[in-house]
Amino acid sequence: MTQISSFTGEFRNRTRESAFQADHLPESRRHARLLFMLSALLNALFLISDWRFAGTPHFWVAVPARVAVVLWSLFCLSLTDRMTSFRAVERICFAWQLVTAVGVAFLVSSRSDIAIFVLVMLPLVFYLVVPTSFRGNVGGGLGCGILLLIGYSVPAPLSPTVPGMVMAVAILHCGMWMAIARGNRLQRRAWTAGRIAREAQAALANSRDTLERMFMAVPVPLLVTRQDGTVIRQNRAAVDAYAAGSGAVLDNVGDTYVDMAARDALFAHLKQGEAIDAFECRVRRGDGLARNVLLSARAIQIDGEACVMTSVVDITERKEGERHLERLALSDALTGLPNRAHFLRALTRACHPAEPAGERPSRFAVLLIDLDEFKRVNDTAGHDAGDALLCAVAERLQQAVRPGDIVARMGGDEFAVLLTSLPGDDVVARILTRISDLLHAPVQYRGRSIDSRASVGVALYPDHGSDVETLVKHADIALYDAKNNGRGRATLFNDALLDNWNREAAMLDRARQVIAQEKPCPWYQPKVALDTGRIVGFEALFRCPTEDGRVIMPGDIAAAFEHPELGPAVTRLMIEGMLSDCVRWRRAGLDFGHVAVNVSGADLNDEAFADWLLGRLASAGLPPSMMELEVTESVFLGRNADRVARALHRFSDAGFTIALDDFGTGYASLSHLKQFPIDVIKIDRQFVRDLHTDPEDAAIVRTVLNLAYSLGIRTVAEGVETPMQLDYLRAGGCHVGQGYHFGAAVPATQAEAALRANVTRCRA
């Protein structure tokens, strides 16, 4: 708050006081000019009355004094044009006061009848009329009063009227001081209030102008409307956005909404005074084009009228981008089919339809399709051919299904089909037939023919599951069965498949536990030459003794041996243990012949397996000839048969013996004996077991022995348990026998004891 002196009535702050004085300079100059003019005029009139003193001694005092006052007033009047500052006004007025006070002091010395009036009035003029500061007014008035008293008292200084006159003048001056201070305060307060009012008005005007400029410059469309939608004000962005070059003018926002229900809902909220944020709707521009917008609105008061201020953000491009991204997120880039996420979303909607209560849900089917030998296509023909095959499969699947069915690519070489609204199971059968006919036809790509075959797993809703996870899992189990049983076929899910799946899953879990926590090791079953009875080698068999005294057998984790990760892990553990035992036996001088170990297709598909095995043999100082690799016929039928063949030839060239295990039980043809480097044929135990009672088994054994003899391949009979079986095999020319008749699989320490006993027996 601005401080004003209680004594002077002026601002204590000199800068503020200077601003006040500068602001009143024109008025002060005008008053000074008027004062000088009146002083000259009145004193000229008084000069005429002064002629009554003619002939008296006072005449020569009064007339010169009066003339001096008139002339000085005129001189000061001539200086008013030079009063360009308040200081100049103050100095000129002070000079006028001084000369006038001295001149009038001479006049009152005569004690004329107007002397007392002049003695009182002239200080009042100096106090109240002279346009100067407090010090100028008080100083001039006080000085004038003192001079007048002196002039009045000079002829009779001891006149009895002098003390009273002194007291009257003193009281007069005190009153004038108070009047000046009060007048100054009122003037300055009025000036301050006026200045504040002007500043407030200027600030308000500037604020309104700033707000107007800001309102118009905001790049987001802004509208001020009445409750009924009538537009009161809109910025340039709103005008441009609505007109869009059409020249149309927006009068009422209610006419722009595409969805009237959305408009009514928005207006209802606004009439209740609610704030609106991010209200999404569609509006139509002046050119007729509909746009997606995001509205935010607030209720405001304008001149007492309820209005609404709304911002409009055009999100059409953003919505189009979102839809594009959604299409990309839900579609496969290569084939253009829906992807896994899209398929699962559609499947979820099918499992939970919005149907009337009590209505029976529609039946549908989930088909999971996996291309057979797809990796071989990529490896032999290139990834571009693989992509062409995938696109061809996508197109053929779409041809095979009905309108309304969904075909999706789940990833890699796996596809899925959702067959909706099935009237009967025969529809599924017909569609599966069309899929098989179309997919199994070769694909022509750049002048070459690419084989196309696929396996299919099928699950029905609600027969095989009522939720997405269950249906997909059961279809996947059916697909797994189709691929494991010949490929190129379709399998419908059933409970037996689930039992097998759970059993294999349990085996895999058990195998993971064995590898991580137990200590699997090879046990050795002797292989005996039938002509001499000597041990010529062993077969290393998987065993895993547990802390509770049980032994985990291969059948407990059978599914793990063909697993792409667990199978090689088990094989490497077996080989590490076998090499350690062989090194120890050699150092002990024991001739163990060779040790056979089973290797799976997963092992042979691993290109690093051969390098690892050869490196381990070299580091152990063991020759490859001491090791026999046993493979089953199934390894020749896998999707990587060419890679298996290369691995077997490499092992054979390095000096390994290759044995074909379980001969006659699989799908191998006789051409495999010629195509692959087979050194040994192992006759499966199921033929040996009943050969002395079952003529067909005996005939099979004889045929295998004759075939091997003709091809120069050695033979090993498994499962030899009786002397009769031994005699039959020996008579048929079988080279080696293996079975409980010679001994069961035993730990390495017992195998070592058997080798020592074999040495003793041979020496005897």
What does this 3D model show about the protein?
The protein has about 775 residues and is an alpha/beta fold. The chain contains 25 helices and 21 strands. The protein is elongated and about 190 Å long. The mean pLDDT is about 80.
Low-pLDDT regions: none
How many H/I helical runs?
25
Largest sheet: 8 strands, mixed, barrel
Distance between the termini: 131 Å
Q: Any idea what the radius of gyration is?
A: 60 Å
Major sheet: arrangement of strands = 13-14-16-17-18-19-20-21
Number of strands: 21
Identify the notable features of this structure and list them briefly.
single chain, 764 residues, 5-stranded antiparallel beta sheet, 17% strand, elongated
What layout of secondary structure does this protein have?
Layout: H1 14-23, H2 25-49, H3 59-78, H4 86-108, H5 115-128, H6 134-153, H7 161-217, E1 222-226, E2 231-234, H8 236-243, H9 260-271, E3 276-284, E4 290-302, E5 305-314, H10 316-329, H11 340-351, E6 364-371, H12 374-381, H13 383-400, E7 406-411, E8 414-419, H14 425-439, E9 443-445, E10 448-450, E11 454-461, H15 468-484, E12 490-492, H16 495-517, E13 521-529, E14 535-545, E15 551-552, H17 566-587, E16 594-598, H18 601-605, H19 607-620, E17 627-632, H20 641-654, E18 657-663, H21 671-675, E19 680-683, H22 685-689, H23 695-711, E20 714-718, H24 723-731, E21 736-738, H25 748-763
Parallel strand pairs: 11-12, 14-16, 16-17, 17-18, 18-19, 19-20, 20-21
Antiparallel strand pairs: 1-2, 1-5, 3-4, 4-5, 6-8, 6-11, 7-8, 9-10, 13-14, 13-21, 14-15
Helix pairs in contact: 2-3, 2-4, 3-4, 4-5, 4-6, 5-6, 5-7, 6-7, 12-13, 13-14, 17-19
